[in-house]
Design a protein that fits this description.
Structural class: mainly beta
Mean pLDDT: 87
Shape: globular
Order of helices and strands: HEEEEHEHEEEE
Number of strands: 9
Radius of gyration: 15 Å
Amino acid sequence: MQTAPEAFQDLVSELDYPMFVVTAASNGARAGCLVGFTTQCSIDPARFLVCLSKNNATWEVARTADALAVHFLRADQREIAEHFGSVSAKDDPDKLTAWPLGSGPGGLPILEDCDWFVGRVVGQVDLGDHTGFVLDPTDGELDHGPGPQLGYDQLDDIEAGQPAGIDH
């Protein structure tokens, strides 16, 4: 029989988390990273939880940001996921410049060709090696319609750009 931590690790390793890119802007800095730990956490009022690794440069910007942008990745957007999951801010201080960007509410960087929403940060929760950012959705765009979402299992061969791996 497995110990509880071993059984837990085996069980969650079977999950195929949907992948997102989260961008932040605060105090003149911009950042973005690939994120796998997210979930809707309330229906009324609408709330979404984004968990960012404290080892990630995006966390540094997000912790003082008023809002975050959450970009939904479709199955055909692996290249975006590879860039935001494998390039660290140490390698490229503004890795956002590699992608066509729009400007969202509050000057948040918005990745073109992605469906997205912006959420006002209404709470932060210390979750150990991650911080959970509770978002109140305030704006968004759905232009690309439904389609298969990019999942973690499709990206398990990415070499992470930060010590904790893909930000999840």
